[in-house]
Amino acid sequence: MQESKSSPSLTAAPTGAAEGEVINQNVYGAVRTLAEQGTPKKAIARQLGLDVKTVRKWLRRTWAPERRRARGRLLDRWREFLQARAPEVGFNGVVLMREMAALGYRGGYWAVLKYIAPWRKDWRGEGLPTVRFETGPGEQAQVDWGSTALYLGEQRVRVHLFTMVLGFSRRIFARAYRSEGLDPLLDGHAAAFAHFGGRTETILYDNPRTIVTRKDEAAGHVVWNATFKDRMDFYGVSVRLCRFYRAQTKGKVESGVKYVKRNALAGRR
Questions:
Q1: Tens-digit pLDDT profile for residues 88-120
Q2: CATH homologous superfamily, domain 140-264
């Protein structure tokens, strides 16, 4: 009695990243088995639903899993752009995606973030977290300066950002100036109070020279800039300073400055 030759079957392949490799392996195994049984190439192709060229290909070579192209390599042609542009926009993924899409990029947002992550980590160098300090409504605001480069027309210029953040609601007011002098500082306060419709009981500052003429922390003695102090007294605002080397205590406004630089203004013209 002649033993019948059973046809090899293509087992169901899993879904996901390995699917293509499993299908290829199954096809290769089926083609080789039929060929070893003496089945002609055209018959193999017809039986497995393949092109005869595919059958010849699998009979010519030894099967090995095809390496999937690393996703990062899809962004390699954008590497020069990202290395130059990412630091300019504070490694803001939304801004980078917007600009790359306009230039023809059709990949994913998270792929971009993953690609630039090593550079971003080195660039940011963020410090250790500190204890969160909360204040009530109308109790405290925080003021600080930041700086960034942006375009005025076609010219790229550096501006200084007066930023005030309300401690309770985290609402932000920011205005750009050409310097961090006393006049811009006072104008920034007036504009912020007008924007918010009032002022808080206290405002927390770092220790800029436009505010503090001299400070003896050990003795608890502060010599204020007279013009600044007179203006704050006029508004009825109590002025407080961060302790030396503890600027982290005004983390709300520092986060506000980062938001203005890295989100509101980043990449804008």
A1: 777 888 788 888 888 888 888 888 888 988 888
A2: Ribonuclease H-like superfamily/Ribonuclease H (3.30.420.10)
Strand segments, DSSP code E, in the chain are 140-152, 155-166, 172-177, 202-205, 212-216, 221-224, 238-241
- pTM for this prediction: 0.46
Closest residue by Cα to residue 242 from 130, 162, 125: 130
Q: Vertex 73, ends 72 and 77: CA angle to 5°? A: 115
Give how far Cα 176 sits from Cα of 120, 151, 168, 185, 192, Å.
Answer: 26, 12, 24, 11, 12
The per-residue pLDDT for range 190-213, each reduced to its tens digit, is: 999 999 999 999 998 887 788 888
